[in-house]
C-alpha cells in the first residue's frame, strides 16, 4: 500500500540585512516521524484480507480515506475527517449487516470481517501518514483513538428517552473483533457479527419492546489497560435497563458466565502481546478479586432460545486463601481466594465482563441493573473447509452457523429483558 507523503510548497519571507531569502525545506514544519504499522495492520497484505474486502465491497474504504487525508492541511481538519469517516464506516457495516442498501459484493451480509479489515486499512494509513503540517506524536495518537472509537460504534450509541417501566426498554450489547488470526486468518467473530446485526434494532419481548445499541471492542490488552471499556460504557450504564458483554467461547454451546476474575492469563492478543498480571483498574475503593453477573441466568438457561444449549457456568480457577496453588472450583470462588480465571477464562472476554460488572457495582447499580457476560459457541467452517492453508474464506455451513448464533443472541437478550422486568426499580440517572 502506498503511504502518503504530502508536502506543502510554502514560500516564507525572511528579512535579513534588507535582503529577502527563501525559507529552506528544513525550516518547514513537519510531522513527527510516523510509526511503523502494527502486527494487526501488517496482516492486511495477506490474500485473505484482500479477498474479504473485495468480496464485501469494502476495498474502497482505505483508498478513499487516504485521499481525504491528502486534502487535510491542518490537525483540526484531519480530526474532523477522521471522526466523520470512522462513523461512516460503522454505519456502513451496520447497514450491510441489517440488509440496508446494496450488498456491494457476494460475501454474506452478516459477515463482521469487512469492518475489521477496513478499519485496519484506515488505521495503517493514519499511523504512517506524513502530512505537510506539524503533527505531533500525541496528536496522531488522538486521531487514532478517534478513529477506533467512531468506527466501533462507541460514539454512535443512541438510547431513547423514557425506557424502564414507562416504555421502550434499553439494552447495551458489546462484541469483539476476530482474533487468533495467526492460527487462521479467515476467522470471524460471532459476537462482532451480533453487534452489527442488532445495533439500533427493536426486539419484541414478553415485557414489551427493547431497543438494542451495540459497540465493538478490540482484542488488545493495551486498550483495556488504558480504560477503553470504562470510557465507552460509563456514560450509558446508568441509562440502560440491561447490558451484556458478548464474546466467542466454547465449541457447540452458549454460556452465561456467573463469575468474573481479576486475572490476565497471558494469551497473546491481536498484536501478539501477552499480559500475565492482575487486571489493572483504577477508581474508588479496593479492587475485588471477583465480580458476578446480575443477568437472569436461570431464565436464560431454561428458555428455548435456539439450536445451541445454554449453560449457567459457575466454574472458576482460584488460589484459595492461605494457599499457593491454583485450584478449579466448579461451584465458584471460596471466601478470600485470589482469582486465576473466571468462568469465561483469563483472556479479554473475562476481562471485559470483569470491568463492565465492576463498573456497574461502582456506579451503585448492582441491585438494579441486570448485566453480565454471554459466551457464544465457536464459529466453525463447514466440513472440508477447516484447513486455513487450503480452505476458502466462507462456505454455506459457516454462514448458517453465524446466522444461527446471531439469532440466538437476539433470543437470549429478549429472554433476559423479560425475566428482569419484575425486578426493575427507578434509579438515579435514568432519563
Helix-strand layout with pairing:
Elements: E1 13-16, E2 19-22, H1 39-42, H2 47-56, H3 61-71, H4 75-97, H5 113-128, H6 137-151, E3 169-176, H7 190-198, E4 202-205, E5 208-217, H8 221-225, H9 228-233, E6 242-248, E7 254-257, E8 259-261, E9 263-265, E10 276-278, E11 290-292, H10 297-302, E12 310-313, E13 316-319, E14 327-329, E15 338-341, H11 348-362, E16 371-376, H12 396-420
Parallel strand pairs: 3-5, 3-6, 6-16, 7-12
Antiparallel strand pairs: 1-2, 4-5, 7-16, 8-11, 9-10, 13-14, 13-15
Helix pairs in contact: 2-5, 3-4, 3-5, 4-5, 4-6, 4-7, 5-6, 7-12
Helix content: 25-40%
Distance between the termini: 47 Å
Strand runs, count: 16
Low-confidence stretches: 1-28, 423-431
Mean pLDDT, as a whole number? Answer: 91
Largest sheet: 7 strands, mixed
Helix and strand sequence: EEHHHHHHEHEEHHEEEEEEHEEEEHEH
Helix/strand-derived class?
alpha/beta
Shape: globular
Report strand %. Answer: 15-25%
Rg for CA atoms: 23 Å
Count of alpha/pi helices: 12
Strand order of the largest sheet: 4-5-3-6-16-7-12
What does this structure look like?
The chain is of the alpha/beta class. 34% of the residues lie in helices and 17% in strands. Helix 2 (47-56) crosses helix 5, helix 4 (75-97) packs across helix 7 (190-198) and helix 5 packs antiparallel against helix 6. The longest helix is centred in the last third of the chain and has 25 residues, at 396-420. The radius of gyration is 23 Å and the shape is globular.
